[in-house]
UniProtKB/TrEMBL annotation:
Coiled coil: none annotated. Gene3D superfamilies: CofE-like (3.30.1330.100), Tetratricopeptide repeat domain (1.25.40.10). It comes from Caldisericum exile. It holds the Pfam family F420_ligase. Keywords: TPR repeat. The keyword Acetylation does not apply. Residues 208-308 form the Coenzyme F420:L-glutamate ligase-like domain. SMART domains: TPR. This is Coenzyme F420:L-glutamate ligase-like domain-containing protein. SUPFAM superfamilies: CofE-like, HCP-like. TPR repeats lie at residues 31-64.
Length: 376
């Protein structure tokens, strides 16, 4: 994983040459090197070679479903060939004989994509079945929009009672989501207070729709094009720390991470409780803990672990993160990000403060890099 990081400052052709040589010697390296080499060809607009790199990786590693998922995502998100993507996703899905709840299995990520494709294609029966399977594993990436879509499919199939149950679970999971409550009131006979006074704020939050922000995208240019037209004097431009990290290329597919014994040991002491449709704490995942160790260093993580344990005895929370540092708190584990980055471990930006100041100096507005999941 860090091998790829070490060459990211090189010229793109040098990176390609180095990675090709590396994969010749290490053909079973897994998703990391194949994915990044394919990405480099995408940057050069050589989509055919980018595709061939992934196919070659699959040929060398036929049992690696993550590489197959990467190929499906290449078709779906990069070249927007939905039909070929669907074929790949269904091929992966056929490997599973029973549901898999683990976030370290490709199962949920394939289901996420298949529900989207079937729903967008208007295939009611197939979309309903995929949504049923996805819903039953209670994944944290079952968004408010997914609850609405699944309920609408159930209504089309005449299953009113199950649609009500699904929406009730959705509102319990996303209590601030107005669209869910409006759907419940309009189609299911509920009477939720959509404009609850307790949710009102003197601060106006303006969500800005952008294209999917990808690895190596120019964040400043995206902000100029999509956010600045809405900005007014005194506004603050906020950027998700996860999105900022993706643009910096700080993304690590789980298959590329070599988990140490230390990471496995310490992660066991993080709260392992997994909330239905909410997931568990990121560092309960040993893969995320491994990234924390590599970001903060062994000493800070071990000290944070020991002092955190002492702090808990005295009722003090958050000691681990204070000692281990900002990066340990910013790490997102699967499936925190939206596809195609939902099976990646994503730390925060290299330096959030410097990044915010650099963007501010260019666009002329105050900028905040935020780690926030739901703002209402």
């Amino acid at each position: 994983m860090r091998y790829i990081d070490s060459i990211k400052t090189f010229d793109i052709d040098d990176r390609i040459r180095i990675l090709k040589s590396y994969l010749t010697e290490n053909p079973r390296d897994g998703i990391g090197a194949y994915r990044y080499l394919s990405h480099l060809y995408v940057l050069k607009n050589d989509y055919k070679e980018a595709e061939e790199i992934l196919k070659n990786g699959i040929e060398k590693n036929p049992e690696n479903l993550w590489l197959q998922l990467e190929l499906g995502d290449f078709y779906f998100f990069t070249v927007q060939d939905v039909k070929r993507a669907e074929e790949v996703y269904k091929g992966i899905f056929s490997h599973f004989k029973e549901p898999q709840k683990s976030t370290l299995s490709p199962y949920r990520y394939v289901l996420k994509r298949l529900t989207t494709i079937a729903y967008n294609n208007g295939n009611v029966d197939e979309a309903t079945e995929f949504y049923r399977l996805f819903y039953e594993i209670e994944p944290s990436d079952f968004y408010a929009s997914d609850f609405i879509k699944y309920a609408s499919l159930l209504l089309k199939n005449g299953n009113f009672e199950l649609a009500k149950k699904v929406v009730e679970v959705g509102i319990k999971t996303h209590p601030k989501n107005r669209e869910l409550k409006e759907f419940a009131n309009q189609y299911l006979g509920f009477n939720y207070d959509v404009y609850n006074n307790s949710q009102k704020s003197t601060i106006e939050k303006i969500p800005v729709k952008t294209p999917l922000i990808k690895e190596d995208d120019n964040l400043i240019e995206i902000i100029k094009q999509y956010a600045l037209p809405y900005a007014r004097n005194g506004d603050i431009i906020t950027i998700s720390s996860c999105v900022a990290a993706i643009a910096e290329g700080r993304i690590y597919p789980v298959d590329s991470i070599k988990v140490s014994k230390l990471a496995r040991f310490i992660s066991r002491f993080v709260n392992q409780e997994s909330i239905p449709f909410g997931g568990a704490a990121p560092l309960a995942n040993p893969y995320a803990m491994q990234i924390a160790i590599e970001e903060a260093g062994v000493l800070r993580i071990v000290m944070g672990f020991l002092l955190g344990a002492i702090g808990k005895v005295f009722g003090l929370n958050g000691v681990f993160y204070k000692v281990a540092g900002e990066q340990s708190a910013l790490i997102d584990d699967p499936p925190a990000a939206i596809p195609p980055y939902d099976y990646y471990i994503i730390p925060g930006p290299i330096d959030s403060n410097k990044l915010a100041k650099r963007i501010r100096d260019v666009i002329g507005f105050e900028v905040a890099i935020v780690d926030a999941n739901e703002l209402g």
